[in-house]
Amino acid sequence: MASSSRPVQSVTNAELYNRWAKVYDTDGNILQSVDDLMLPALLDHVFALLPSDLPIRVIELGCGTGRNTAKLLSPKFSSPQISSIAALDLSPGMLTVAKERCENYLTANASGALLAPPVVEFYEFDALNQEPSPEIKALEGKADLVFSTLVLEHLPIDVFFRAITSFLKPTGGYVLLTNMHAEMGRISQAGFVDEVTGEKIRGHSYAHEISEVIEEGRKWGFEVVGEVGERGIQQADVGTVVGERGKKWIGVNVWYGFVMRFEEVRQSERAGQ
Ligand SMILES: C[S@@+](CC[C@H](N)C(=O)[O-])C[C@H]1O[C@@H](n2cnc3c(N)ncnc32)[C@H](O)[C@@H]1O
């Protein structure tokens, strides 16, 4: 892999994303492009599993700039299936962008196909904090679906499943997760180039193997439903799926994503262990 002589600054994840927020949607990050390509099939999959005749409550863990929150607002998913979306993130800077993006989307579509738009609310939330605020506590046990894209790499796997389990209805539900592939995570970490200082700004990331995520999920009562998707970068992707920055990743798996079902019975079994 090509190494860069650029100076690197390591910061907390909160600082990373507060600083990245301004350019997160425009700096040509290849993982977001691959996620954009792969996510629609996973969304179709999980919405086919969810009941079509009941209002669906979604909690998004790590919504970032609302890149994918806005996809949930498309009439295909939100009207009539989704009744509410609680979008949570560590970074106030990312949440500000997400809020504006979703408000703009809902305003632009106010008289269109979204006759009953979902209620969208934004909350600051740190999954590493074991004592959530009263606002976050009020969300516990309410979700039919937890949606989390490109966030797991920043958390120990058990912390990720603890948060998801706390948000899902105790009677069951689903998680749709996507993540940086461990093949990419072993070589690189989430970060961006600060155009003012020229530095590469990095936070803290883990390289989680798919097998480790599935295994930890089982302990919390989750089973994979459907395919586990993996995506690498191929020569033909450069200039189509990803920009020039994708060249150095040719031949490397960069993304995975899948849906897991949470079942009450499994949770009880776990509790009885
Ligand atoms: C790579 S971004 C992904 C954002 C968005 N889901 C997307 O797909 O574009 C990772 C997000 O996770 C959030 N995050 C990192 N650590 C977190 C934590 N401990 N608790 C909650 N959110 C966290 C970051 O603030 C950031 O917005």
From TrEMBL:
InterPro entries: SAM-dependent_MTases_sf. The keyword Methyltransferase applies. Keywords: Methyltransferase, Transferase. This is S-adenosyl-L-methionine-dependent methyltransferase. SUPFAM superfamilies: S-adenosyl-L-methionine-dependent methyltransferases (SSF53335). It comes from the Eukaryota. One of its GO terms (molecular function) is polyprenyldihydroxybenzoate methyltransferase activity. One of its GO terms (biological process) is methylation. The keyword Transferase applies.
